[in-house]
Design a protein that fits this description.
The complex is a heterodimer of chains A (246) and B (439).
Chain A lengths: L2 E5 L4 H12 L3 E6 L2 H13 L5 E5 L8 H12 L4 E4 L7 H5 L2 H29 L2 E6 L12 H21 L4 E8 L2 E2 L14 E2 H14 L3 E4 L3 H10 L2 H4 L5
Parallel strand pairs in A: 1-2, 1-4, 2-3, 4-5, 5-6, 6-9, 7-8
Helix pairs in contact in A: 1-7, 5-6
Chain B lengths: L16 E4 L15 E4 L15 E4 L6 E5 L4 E5 L4 H8 L4 E2 L11 H6 L7 H4 L6 E7 L5 E4 L5 H7 L8 E8 L1 E2 L4 E9 L2 H11 L5 E6 L11 E8 L12 E2 L11 H13 L1 H4 L2 E5 H5 L5 E2 L10 E8 L4 H15 L6 E6 L14 E9 L3 H17 L2 E2 L9 H7 L3 H4 L10 H6 L9
The chains are: A alpha/beta (246), B alpha+beta (439).
Chain lengths: 246, 439
């Protein structure tokens, strides 16, 4: 039985992932900002098979609370061996371009708070000699594009950070997993026109994520075909790329 | 997402903006003008799930279990959950849906809003009979818990209320005990409509589920032939169908349903060995949901989609009215893969606008052939009106206001329960003054 901590547990992808773990009868500890939504999710996960679900109302941006948050999850579940860091926002790029404050606030949410959690959890897993730490980054972190570069560069930091962490903890029983979702139909992307074959449901992305987490895959593109798309995008020469409307 | 906001008949096509609901504490925040309509899984066939020019409140994000009482079979969950999810949860614990329509890909909210029925109507009535209560959110922010005794007027208006009385967020449903996933019964051929009525009379007392497939292409002496199926839940050993599903991968550029393919399909179906064989054991999936094994089967009707016609004809006039309908359809040369025929029981439905009522129901689909199809359907309506029957709004995209107002005589009582911000394309059509109706 796994003991799973999920930060950003009311996000659509995180909730679908939690359902997969609940079905496997794992223990769950959920962290999010909205108490009513967390309580509803916790009740649902218990009926889906989770033997124990607890939650804590906490803004992931409150970095000073991270150490205590991780400890309380471990105390509640009688240990901690699996973590999914899933919180995040999709910034308004134009508003960020006009405001340094906004840009840095988005970095706080989408990079720094994740890096803080990763650091503490990685050290804990290293000393206990096992654990799976999965972090939701994004395909947007694979290359900065004018339409979305504040989010993209924050996710690039998360991708590079987890890549380094993965090397450091290789051979020490700890799996560090970088998850790169493509276009997922969730409330975060409510403003988009979701027609077309590139859009995936949170449920199908969650299944891919959980399979990858259990198998200890280092990097998960979800759905898988984004690996190919990003290979192409990464390999466009900068001379051409700078003129593209992406 | 593919098909977001469309109906199962893929016709008519409308423009909407969508508001995705993701948790049951969400308020309806309405900064912009425009009417609202709850939209579940889009399995209503016509325009009762459409709101041209307005907003659709998509409810699939409301899909959480709330509570389950395993001893009494009472399940509470959010309204965007699919019937499929309820079965998946309840069946291993010895419970099943008390009433199920022919697809499990509908939401619980949709099952209430259309007061759906199943093959056991003569025993257990409609879906609404088993709803213990639900929470209704109105656009003014008010919330009501409605049951048969508490807010009973709102309960009766919302069951079969086509999503117009507000948003159903959460509900409590009474399940029924079953011994397992299998049903045991028989399939029997009948040569004409009186054969069907005879089999219904003989079977309804001993079998919980009865339904018939009807060959709508048969002419002359073969008209009205079909296959009658009857079954009960049973302890049985059978084969569980694999989880694999077929999908119609794209919309056929031309309808695959035409005079020739229909005759072929119906003749083969009638003469297949399984139709002759009497005793049968079915897994619940092929028995209740034969078409759910083929995902997006509606695509075979091509880009113009199709119309479904489902009516109920009162017992006294059913035999001759149904004969007249089959004659009309056979002459038109337009037909259906699956004509479905079933005797309803006498139990009164719980909703002001419920469709199911004592009589015989017939359901057919027709590829959208434009004006001739509409003419055919209108001539079927003329027969239904004359017989004192009704047509099912969940499947309709074209009935006239005159027809609707005759079929649902309590519609004026219903008006005061409609949320002032809620509307649908269907409702705007059928509630207009028949005098001013475009012909």
């Amino acid at each position: 039985m796994r003991k799973v901590l999920i930060v950003g547990a009311t996000s659509a992808i995180a909730e679908s992932v939690a359902r997969e773990f609940a079905r496997r009868e794992d223990r769950l500890f959920l962290v999010g900002r909205r108490p009513q939504a967390l309580a509803a999710i916790a009740d649902d996960l218990k009926l889906r098979g989770a033997p124990m679900v607890q939650f804590r109302v906490q803004d992931a941006n409150d970095i000073s609370a991270h150490a205590e948050l991780i400890e309380s999850a471990s105390v509640a579940m009688g240990g901690l061996d699996t973590v999914l860091i899933a919180h995040g926002t999709l910034p308004d790029q134009a508003a960020c371009a006009a405001s340094v404050e906004r840009t840095l606030a988005e970095y706080q949410t989408n990079a720094l708070s994740q890096i803080s959690l990763c650091t503490l959890i990685a050290n804990r897993f290293e000393s206990q000699g096992n654990g799976t730490l999965a972090v939701i980054s994004s395909v947007a972190g694979d290359r900065g594009r004018q339409s979305n570069y504040v989010y993209g560069s924050a996710k690039a930091a998360v991708t590079a950070f987890t890549s380094g962490l993965r090397q450091r903890l290789h051979g020490k029983g700890v799996h560090v997993i970088t998850i790169k979702p493509g276009f997922v139909d969730t409330p975060m992307t409510a403003a988009f026109d979701k027609r077309g074959p590139l859009w995936a449901s949170a449920d199908s992305v969650a299944k891919t994520i959980v399979r990858g987490m259990i198998a200890g895959k280092p990097v998960i593109y979800a759905p898988w075909f984004w690996w190919g798309i990003m290979q192409i995008i990464r390999n466009i020469p900068e001379r051409i790329f700078r003129g593209l409307k992406l | 997402m593919p098909g977001a906001g469309s109906s199962w008949g893929r016709w008519p096509r409308h423009r909407h903006r969508t508001i995705a609901l993701t948790n049951r504490y969400q308020r309806l925040v309405l900064d912009e003008p425009g009417t609202l309509l709850p939209y579940g899984n889009g399995r209503s066939y016509g325009d009762s799930c459409q709101n041209d020019g307005g907003f659709l409140l998509t409810t699939r994000g409301l899909d959480r279990y709330v509570a389950f009482d395993v001893d009494n079979g009472v399940i509470e969950c959010e309204a965007g959950m699919l019937l499929e999810d309820v079965i998946e949860f309840a069946l291993p614990r010895g419970w099943f849906l008390p009433v199920t329509p022919g697809t499990c890909f509908v939401t619980l909210g949709g099952a209430i809003a259309n007061d759906v029925h199943g093959k056991n109507h003569h025993r257990l009535g409609t879906f609404g009979h088993h709803v213990l209560g639900f929470e209704l959110l109105r656009s003014d922010g008010s919330e009501r818990w409605c049951t048969p005794s508490e807010n009973a007027d709102w309960f009766a208006a919302t069951i079969g209320g086509l999503g117009l009385t507000g948003l159903i967020r959460r509900l409590r449903l009474q399940l029924r005990r079953v011994p397992g996933p299998f049903l045991r019964g028989q399939s029997l051929r009948f040569g004409n409509l009186s054969g069907f009525f005879e089999l219904s009379r003989d079977s309804d007392a001993d079998y919980e589920y009865t339904v018939s497939w009807l060959d709508c292409t048969a002419k002359g002496r073969q008209r009205g032939r079909g296959v009658f199926m009857r079954a009960n839940h049973a302890v049985a050993e059978g084969t569980t169908p694999g989880s694999g599903q077929w999908r119609v991968p794209f919309t056929s550029p031309l309808p695959l349903v035409n005079r020739l393919s229909l005759r072929l399909f119906n003749t083969l179906y009638y003469h297949r060995p399984a139709a002759r064989r009497a005793d049968a054991v079915w897994h619940y999936r092929p028995f209740f949901y034969p078409l759910d094994g083929v995902l997006e089967w509606n695509r075979i009707y091509g880009p113009r989609g199709f119309y479904q016609y489902q009516c109920v004809i009162p017992p006294a006039t059913a035999p001759e009215s149904l004969e007249e309908m089959l004659e009309t359809i056979a002459v038109s040369g337009s037909g259906s893969f699956l004509g479905v025929l079933k005797m309803f029981g006498e139990q009164a439905s719980p909703g002001l606008l419920s469709f199911a009522r004592s009589g015989t129901t017939l359901a057919l689909d027709f590829p959208n052939g434009g004006a001739p199809t509409l003419q055919l359907l209108e001539s079927l309506d003329a027969i239904t009106r004359k017989a004192g029957g009704a047509v099912y709004p969940a499947k309709d995209a074209r009935m006239s206001a005159t027809s609707f107002q005759q079929y649902f005589p309590r519609w004026k009582e219903f008006l005061r329960f409609i949320d002032p911000r809620f509307s649908s394309s269907f409702w705007r059509r059928v509630s207009q003054d028949p005098q001013g109706e475009a012909s």
